[in-house]
């Protein structure tokens, strides 16, 4: 299959949207940008389209997909008994990087989207290209991140091309995504509401709107059956092993020297000012603020795969606000491993 990547901005009329809509209506899949990461979309009522998504990604089909909508009035077509708290969250944060787990309306969506659960994750993304596509289509779009399963999520059109060329017909390329990590997933069918995956909408932001919410630690999530089934797979990992290290120039300098003495080639992922140290490859986390770390994280992890590094060292940050989402992804990419001198 030939894969076309077309640059679009979502503001200008573009025949690429007609083509995307036609492909989707024919049960094909199309990649498109959101404000978090690129999604690989298919119509969520069409079993064949949903099967095609899992196949293109090489993803196990027991992991449910998020359903994207472009307008509030679409919501009641797919979900039942929306709670007051769920409504408040949607009003406050949609369109935006928030996925709300609700009770699915029986029969309204392909069972392959929900992977047999009686709930569904719904999100209205805040990106001009995604919104234009969703509104023109006026159908629910199931879309996981548009990467090969297990690889870092794509934050640029070319990342999607790297992973899925030959496997999908069309990539709408709207440039770099912005936030850079996936949406917050919150389960509002639980009491208290529970964050299943941290993201751009933080615990603090929810609590200002709906009061106390639960954000289990990674350890707690591991102990029981995974609530967000995606949690049980290795995610976000480049080919070489990733080791976490404190955001400290002296510690990183010593680690580089020790690894080099061991004959290891090292890719360093860290804020700009670490660029002067003698890593074999350096991929930046920007100025090191949470915003810039999130925006650079997946591109930096992905860039490691174009090197022949033996090990990837990545500096950490605190877990306040967006730091929780960043550290969730970094810890997974490292399998929880830290550099130990
Ligand atoms: O930012 C995002 O959310 C991106 C863009 C494309 O919208 N999408 C994304 O989808 O990250 P995906 O499939 O890679 O991640 C979906 C997450 C998984 O952790 C999955 O287990 C969880 O949402 N999830 C989906 N439906 C669920 C449900 N009914 N109950 C619990 N967790 C659910
Ligand atoms: Mg994903």
UniProtKB/TrEMBL annotation:
Q: Does the keyword Protein biosynthesis apply?
A: no
Which GO molecular-function terms appear in the entry? L-threonylcarbamoyladenylate synthase
Q: What is its main location?
A: cytoplasm
Q: Under which main EC class is this enzyme filed?
A: transferase
Quote the subcellular location field of this record: Cytoplasm
InterPro entries hit by this protein: DHBP_synth_RibB-like_a/b_dom, Sua5-like_dom, Sua5/YwlC_C, Sua5_C, T(6)A37_SUA5, TC-AMP_synthase_SUA5
Q: Which reaction does it catalyse?
A: L-threonine + hydrogencarbonate + ATP = L-threonylcarbamoyladenylate + diphosphate + H2O
The similarity comment for this entry is: Belongs to the SUA5 family.
Q: What does this protein do?
A: Required for the formation of a threonylcarbamoyl group on adenosine at position 37 (t(6)A37) in tRNAs that read codons beginning with adenine.
What name does UniProt use for this protein? Answer: Threonylcarbamoyl-AMP synthase
């Amino acid at each position: 299959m030939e894969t076309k990547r077309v640059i679009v901005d979502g503001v200008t009329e573009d025949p690429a949207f007609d083509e995307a809509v036609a492909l989707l209506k024919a049960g094909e899949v199309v990649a498109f940008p959101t404000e978090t990461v690129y999604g690989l979309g298919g119509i969520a009522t069409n079993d064949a389209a949903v099967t095609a998504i899992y196949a293109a990604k090489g993803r196990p089909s027991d992991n449910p997909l998020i359903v994207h909508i472009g307008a509030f009035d679409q919501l009641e077509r797919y979900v039942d008994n929306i709670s007051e708290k769920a409504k408040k969250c949607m009003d406050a944060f949609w369109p935006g990087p928030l996925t709300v787990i609700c009770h699915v309306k029986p029969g309204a969506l392909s069972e392959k989207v929900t992977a047999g659960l009686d709930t569904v994750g719904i999100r209205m993304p805040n990106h001009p290209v995604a919104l234009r596509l969703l509104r023109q289509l006026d159908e629910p779009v199931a879309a996981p991140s548009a990467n090969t399963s297990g690889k870092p999520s794509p934050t640029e059109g070319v990342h999607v091309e790297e992973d899925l060329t030959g496997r999908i017909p069309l990539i709408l390329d709207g440039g770099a995504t912005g936030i850079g990590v996936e949406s917050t997933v919150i389960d509002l069918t639980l009491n208290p509401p529970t964050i299943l995956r941290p993201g751009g909408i933080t615990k603090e932001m929810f609590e200002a709107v709906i009061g106390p919410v639960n954000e289990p630690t990674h350890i707690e999530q591991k102990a029981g059956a995974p609530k967000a089934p995606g949690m049980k797979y290795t995610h976000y990992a480049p080919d070489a092993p990733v080791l976490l290290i404190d955001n400290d120039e002296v510690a990183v300098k010593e680690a580089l020297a020790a690894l080099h003495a061991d004959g290891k080639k090292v890719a360093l992922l860290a804020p700009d000012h670490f660029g002067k140290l003698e890593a074999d490859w350096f991929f930046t986390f920007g100025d090191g603020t949470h915003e810039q770390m999130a925006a650079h994280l997946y591109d930096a992890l992905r860039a490691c795969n174009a090197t022949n590094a033996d090990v990837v060292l990545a500096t950490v940050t605190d877990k306040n606000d967006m730091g929780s989402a960043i550290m969730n992804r970094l810890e997974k990419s490292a399998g929880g491993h830290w550099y130990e001198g």
